[in-house]
Design the sequence.
């Protein structure tokens, strides 16, 4: 059985944490820390315009000697956002994340953001499915 991104969002919820492009990197980092996430969508006028992650902060602020208080999200965000659709499988999205070296995928349904999944969400879903299969096999073997 293939697990869909839609089923992961049903389980984890579709809450999306976002910032505006003109927010400071400091504010974005504070939001990430407060919400315990590693990336934020960048939304401008209701439209997805980018994604900013802890990795962007490390590589584009800290390593370049910039200040998170003076740097805007739009200056470090990734604008080529790799996205998923709700009907895609976990396996498809894992392949996409691996190929594109990303850890977060916004989920779009007809251009509308309906959630976000992380590599951790996908691994958790796969482990859960494997555990379910193991339990079924054990029941079958033991004749229950």
Sequence:
């Amino acid at each position: 059985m293939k697990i869909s991104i839609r089923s992961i969002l049903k389980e984890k919820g579709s809450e999306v944490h976002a910032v505006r492009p003109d927010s400071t990197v400091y504010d974005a980092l504070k939001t990430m820390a407060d919400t315990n996430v590693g990336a934020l969508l960048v939304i401008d006028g209701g439209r997805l315009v980018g994604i900013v992650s802890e990795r962007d902060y490390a590589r584009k602020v800290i390593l370049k000697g910039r200040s998170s208080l003076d740097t805007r999200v739009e200056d470090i965000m990734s604008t080529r956002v790799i996205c998923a659709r709700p009907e895609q499988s976990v396996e498809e999205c894992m392949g996409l994340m691996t190929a594109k070296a990303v850890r977060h995928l916004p989920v779009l349904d007809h251009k509308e953001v309906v959630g976000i999944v992380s590599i951790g969400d996908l691994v958790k879903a796969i482990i859960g499915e494997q555990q379910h299969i193991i339990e079924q096999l054990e029941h079958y073997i033991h004749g229950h």
